[in-house]
Amino acid sequence: MDSAVVERRTSTPSHTASKARRRPSRAEAEAAVRTLIEWAGDDPDREGLEGTPNRVVRAYEEFFAGYAQDPVALLTTTFEKPASYDEMIVLRDIRLESHCEHHIVPILGKAHIGYVPTGRVVGSSKLVRLVEVFAKRMQIQEALTSQIADTIQEVLAPRGVGVVIEAAHQCMTTRGIRKPGISMVTSRLLGSFRDDRTTRQEFLSIIGGRRSTLQES
After folding, report:
1. What 3-state DSSP class applies to 149?
2. Comparing C-alpha atoms, which of 160, 176, 173, 163 is closest to residue 207?
3. What is the pLDDT confidence band of residue 209, given thresholds at 50, 70 and 90?
4. What value does the mean pLDDT of the chain take?
5. Distance (Å, whole) CA 136 – CA 71
6. Which residue has better confidence, 16 or 172?
7. H-helix or E-strand spanning residue 214
8. What domains appear along the chain, each with residue ranges and CATH number?
9. Catalytic residues, which ones?
10. Cα angle at 180 between 184 and 38, to 5 degrees?
11. pLDDT > 90: what percent of the chain?
Protein backbone atom coordinates (compact mmCIF):
# COMPACT_ATOMS: atom_id res chain seq x y z
CA MET A 1 0.00 0.00 0.00
CA ASP A 2 1.09 3.62 -0.51
CA SER A 3 1.99 5.91 2.37
CA ALA A 4 -0.70 6.79 4.86
CA VAL A 5 -2.61 10.02 4.58
CA VAL A 6 -4.01 11.62 7.71
CA GLU A 7 -7.16 13.65 7.23
CA ARG A 8 -8.24 16.17 9.83
CA ARG A 9 -11.93 16.49 10.51
CA THR A 10 -14.18 17.56 13.32
CA SER A 11 -16.68 15.11 14.72
CA THR A 12 -19.25 15.18 17.45
CA PRO A 13 -19.53 11.87 19.32
CA SER A 14 -23.05 10.76 20.15
CA HIS A 15 -22.50 11.43 23.84
CA THR A 16 -21.63 15.14 23.38
CA ALA A 17 -25.16 16.28 24.12
CA SER A 18 -24.89 14.88 27.62
CA LYS A 19 -21.73 16.84 28.50
CA ALA A 20 -23.79 19.60 30.12
CA ARG A 21 -24.75 17.13 32.85
CA ARG A 22 -22.26 17.06 35.70
CA ARG A 23 -20.33 13.83 35.85
CA PRO A 24 -20.36 12.30 39.35
CA SER A 25 -17.03 11.93 41.10
CA ARG A 26 -15.40 8.55 41.63
CA ALA A 27 -16.33 8.75 45.31
CA GLU A 28 -19.97 9.34 44.40
CA ALA A 29 -19.91 6.40 41.97
CA GLU A 30 -18.45 4.11 44.64
CA ALA A 31 -21.08 5.32 47.12
CA ALA A 32 -23.78 4.40 44.61
CA VAL A 33 -22.39 0.87 44.34
CA ARG A 34 -22.39 0.61 48.15
CA THR A 35 -26.05 1.62 48.11
CA LEU A 36 -26.89 -1.08 45.57
CA ILE A 37 -25.09 -3.71 47.64
CA GLU A 38 -27.06 -2.68 50.71
CA TRP A 39 -30.29 -2.59 48.70
CA ALA A 40 -29.58 -6.15 47.51
CA GLY A 41 -29.41 -7.19 51.16
CA ASP A 42 -25.70 -7.48 51.91
CA ASP A 43 -23.12 -5.56 53.93
CA PRO A 44 -20.66 -3.56 51.79
CA ASP A 45 -18.24 -3.46 54.73
CA ARG A 46 -17.93 -7.21 55.18
CA GLU A 47 -14.83 -9.09 54.08
CA GLY A 48 -15.08 -9.87 50.40
CA LEU A 49 -17.26 -6.85 49.59
CA GLU A 50 -15.17 -4.13 51.17
CA GLY A 51 -13.28 -3.37 47.97
CA THR A 52 -16.15 -4.13 45.60
CA PRO A 53 -17.33 -0.52 45.03
CA ASN A 54 -13.87 0.44 43.84
CA ARG A 55 -13.60 -2.66 41.65
CA VAL A 56 -17.01 -2.05 40.09
CA VAL A 57 -16.13 1.54 39.22
CA ARG A 58 -12.87 0.42 37.62
CA ALA A 59 -14.76 -2.23 35.68
CA TYR A 60 -17.21 0.41 34.45
CA GLU A 61 -14.27 2.45 33.17
CA GLU A 62 -13.39 -0.52 30.96
CA PHE A 63 -16.96 -1.48 30.00
CA PHE A 64 -17.83 2.05 28.86
CA ALA A 65 -14.50 3.38 27.60
CA GLY A 66 -16.15 4.12 24.26
CA TYR A 67 -17.70 7.32 25.57
CA ALA A 68 -14.23 8.88 25.78
CA GLN A 69 -13.23 7.97 22.21
CA ASP A 70 -14.10 9.53 18.86
CA PRO A 71 -15.04 6.79 16.36
CA VAL A 72 -14.58 9.07 13.35
CA ALA A 73 -10.99 9.82 14.30
CA LEU A 74 -10.18 6.10 14.12
CA LEU A 75 -10.87 6.00 10.39
CA THR A 76 -9.21 9.23 9.31
CA THR A 77 -5.86 7.58 8.55
CA THR A 78 -6.39 5.86 5.22
CA PHE A 79 -4.36 4.41 2.36
CA GLU A 80 -4.69 4.70 -1.39
CA LYS A 81 -6.48 1.68 -2.75
CA PRO A 82 -4.23 -0.50 -4.91
CA ALA A 83 -5.12 0.21 -8.52
CA SER A 84 -5.47 -3.50 -9.23
CA TYR A 85 -7.97 -4.11 -6.42
CA ASP A 86 -11.63 -3.13 -6.68
CA GLU A 87 -13.37 -5.98 -4.87
CA MET A 88 -15.11 -6.33 -1.52
CA ILE A 89 -13.15 -6.22 1.75
CA VAL A 90 -14.67 -8.26 4.60
CA LEU A 91 -13.79 -8.80 8.26
CA ARG A 92 -15.61 -11.71 9.87
CA ASP A 93 -16.21 -12.83 13.43
CA ILE A 94 -15.11 -9.69 15.29
CA ARG A 95 -15.60 -10.45 18.98
CA LEU A 96 -18.17 -8.06 20.46
CA GLU A 97 -18.88 -7.27 24.10
CA SER A 98 -21.41 -4.58 24.91
CA HIS A 99 -24.10 -3.72 27.47
CA CYS A 100 -27.78 -3.14 26.81
CA GLU A 101 -29.12 0.24 27.85
CA HIS A 102 -32.24 -1.25 29.44
CA HIS A 103 -30.67 -3.46 32.10
CA ILE A 104 -26.90 -2.76 31.76
CA VAL A 105 -26.16 -6.46 31.33
CA PRO A 106 -23.82 -7.95 28.73
CA ILE A 107 -24.46 -8.40 25.03
CA LEU A 108 -21.99 -10.97 23.71
CA GLY A 109 -21.51 -11.86 20.09
CA LYS A 110 -19.66 -11.08 16.89
CA ALA A 111 -19.75 -8.51 14.14
CA HIS A 112 -19.09 -8.88 10.42
CA ILE A 113 -18.09 -5.87 8.33
CA GLY A 114 -17.75 -5.52 4.56
CA TYR A 115 -17.22 -2.60 2.23
CA VAL A 116 -16.34 -1.94 -1.39
CA PRO A 117 -13.72 0.83 -1.43
CA THR A 118 -13.53 3.70 -3.87
CA GLY A 119 -10.29 5.65 -3.61
CA ARG A 120 -9.27 4.83 -0.03
CA VAL A 121 -8.98 1.83 2.29
CA VAL A 122 -8.39 1.67 6.04
CA GLY A 123 -6.31 -0.72 8.13
CA SER A 124 -8.32 -3.71 9.28
CA SER A 125 -7.41 -3.07 12.93
CA LYS A 126 -9.14 0.30 12.69
CA LEU A 127 -12.42 -1.39 11.82
CA VAL A 128 -12.05 -3.72 14.79
CA ARG A 129 -11.39 -0.74 17.05
CA LEU A 130 -14.43 1.02 15.58
CA VAL A 131 -16.58 -1.90 16.72
CA GLU A 132 -14.95 -1.68 20.16
CA VAL A 133 -15.63 2.04 20.55
CA PHE A 134 -19.33 1.77 19.82
CA ALA A 135 -19.72 -1.51 21.70
CA LYS A 136 -18.29 0.02 24.87
CA ARG A 137 -21.35 2.19 25.36
CA MET A 138 -24.87 1.52 26.65
CA GLN A 139 -27.26 0.98 23.75
CA ILE A 140 -29.39 -1.49 21.85
CA GLN A 141 -28.00 -3.81 19.19
CA GLU A 142 -29.94 -2.15 16.39
CA ALA A 143 -28.30 1.21 17.15
CA LEU A 144 -24.86 -0.39 17.46
CA THR A 145 -25.20 -1.94 14.01
CA SER A 146 -26.26 1.34 12.41
CA GLN A 147 -23.54 3.38 14.14
CA ILE A 148 -20.76 1.16 12.80
CA ALA A 149 -22.09 1.12 9.23
CA ASP A 150 -22.96 4.82 9.11
CA THR A 151 -19.53 5.86 10.38
CA ILE A 152 -17.75 3.77 7.75
CA GLN A 153 -19.99 5.24 5.05
CA GLU A 154 -19.45 8.80 6.30
CA VAL A 155 -15.66 8.65 6.61
CA LEU A 156 -14.54 6.28 3.84
CA ALA A 157 -17.34 7.02 1.35
CA PRO A 158 -17.16 3.51 -0.18
CA ARG A 159 -19.46 2.21 -2.89
CA GLY A 160 -21.25 0.21 -0.23
CA VAL A 161 -21.11 -1.01 3.36
CA GLY A 162 -22.55 -4.05 5.09
CA VAL A 163 -22.59 -4.72 8.84
CA VAL A 164 -24.16 -7.78 10.45
CA ILE A 165 -24.12 -8.43 14.19
CA GLU A 166 -25.10 -11.69 15.88
CA ALA A 167 -25.31 -11.56 19.66
CA ALA A 168 -26.84 -13.10 22.76
CA HIS A 169 -28.46 -10.76 25.28
CA GLN A 170 -28.06 -11.77 28.89
CA CYS A 171 -31.13 -9.73 29.79
CA MET A 172 -32.99 -12.62 28.13
CA THR A 173 -30.73 -15.53 29.05
CA THR A 174 -30.06 -14.80 32.75
CA ARG A 175 -33.21 -12.92 33.78
CA GLY A 176 -36.72 -12.24 32.52
CA ILE A 177 -37.78 -15.10 30.25
CA ARG A 178 -34.46 -16.94 30.88
CA LYS A 179 -34.16 -18.54 27.45
CA PRO A 180 -30.53 -19.48 26.69
CA GLY A 181 -29.45 -20.26 23.18
CA ILE A 182 -31.26 -17.30 21.59
CA SER A 183 -29.21 -14.97 19.38
CA MET A 184 -30.30 -11.75 17.75
CA VAL A 185 -29.18 -10.85 14.22
CA THR A 186 -29.21 -7.26 12.99
CA SER A 187 -27.96 -5.82 9.71
CA ARG A 188 -27.29 -2.45 8.13
CA LEU A 189 -26.72 -2.44 4.36
CA LEU A 190 -25.83 0.77 2.53
CA GLY A 191 -25.06 1.68 -1.07
CA SER A 192 -24.33 -1.27 -3.32
CA PHE A 193 -24.88 -3.70 -0.43
CA ARG A 194 -28.50 -2.55 -0.34
CA ASP A 195 -29.13 -1.81 -4.00
CA ASP A 196 -27.15 -4.55 -5.77
CA ARG A 197 -28.47 -8.04 -5.10
CA THR A 198 -25.24 -9.68 -6.31
CA THR A 199 -23.09 -7.62 -3.95
CA ARG A 200 -25.44 -8.29 -1.07
CA GLN A 201 -25.49 -12.02 -1.66
CA GLU A 202 -21.70 -12.15 -2.04
CA PHE A 203 -21.27 -10.45 1.34
CA LEU A 204 -23.77 -12.70 3.09
CA SER A 205 -22.18 -15.75 1.49
CA ILE A 206 -18.71 -14.73 2.68
CA ILE A 207 -19.79 -14.20 6.29
CA GLY A 208 -21.92 -17.36 6.25
CA GLY A 209 -24.69 -18.19 3.82
CA ARG A 210 -26.95 -19.48 6.59
CA ARG A 211 -28.20 -15.92 7.12
CA SER A 212 -30.93 -16.54 4.55
CA THR A 213 -33.37 -14.32 6.46
CA LEU A 214 -31.34 -11.31 5.25
CA GLN A 215 -31.52 -12.31 1.59
CA GLU A 216 -34.29 -11.71 -0.85
CA SER A 217 -35.83 -14.66 -2.61
Report:
1. helix
2. 163
3. low
4. 87
5. 11
6. 172
7. none
8. 23-63 (1.10.286.10), 68-209 (3.30.1130.10)
9. 100-103, 141, 169, 171
10. 105
11. 73
